[in-house]
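Morning, I've got a small favour to ask if you have a moment. I owe you a coffee for this, so here goes:

…
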Amino acid sequence: MSDLQADINIKEVPSHVAVIMDGNGRWAKQKGNQRIFGHKNAIKAVRDTVEAAAELKVKFLTLYAFSTQNWNRPKIEVEALMTLLVESLKKELPILQKNNIKLVSIGDQDRLPSKCLSTLNEVISQTKQNTHMTLNLALSYSGRWDLQEATRKIAQQVKKGIIEPSEISEMTITENLSTRGMPDPSLMIRTSGEYRLSNFLLWELSYAEFIFTDILWPDFRKEHFYKAIQKYQKRERRFGKTS
């Protein structure tokens, strides 16, 4: 156990941590390479973050892997990303099984290539009985898309007489989002020095603590995750109340 890990109060570790993995392209550019070079070298950061979260007994870890806006990137980059995703899922399956980690995914996944979707569903199926931690990949995801889909579901429920408009509550919306069944994240970490949500978990992050780091995602390691947890534990969470 590292000194950083030892300084963390396990009893106050957030049950759900969300991460915006940003900076792959800039990292690659700094090294004189194409953007996909950064994506390929980000696998270590993903593995370290998953392992660190599991070690600290985080119950849910959501990683923003691919947004709906990312479909607008050059076709060659998108295709390379999808290929990398398939390869990574296959390679990481034994590690997920060994560490008792369940994989789930959220997003508009009808847009994913068939091979990518097939591999994703296979890994989800093979890990569905795992209980130590849930790793949630946000793929082809955006917060606005999710709220739009939830609104459609609720409208259908009203149309069918299942619920009255006056009965729609915050819980109604929560239960119709793709993250239903998960607690809202208490902590959101974003790498690369950017200070925005980029359409990520817009409803769920309402009361989360935000931690921004200048570290580019391919350089993110366990110690950076531990430091983020330490910063989180030093904050006072008031939820609109006074101290």
Observations:
- Residues 75-98 form the longest helix (24 residues).
- The beta strands are 16-20, 60-67, 101-106, 133-141, 187-190, 209-212.
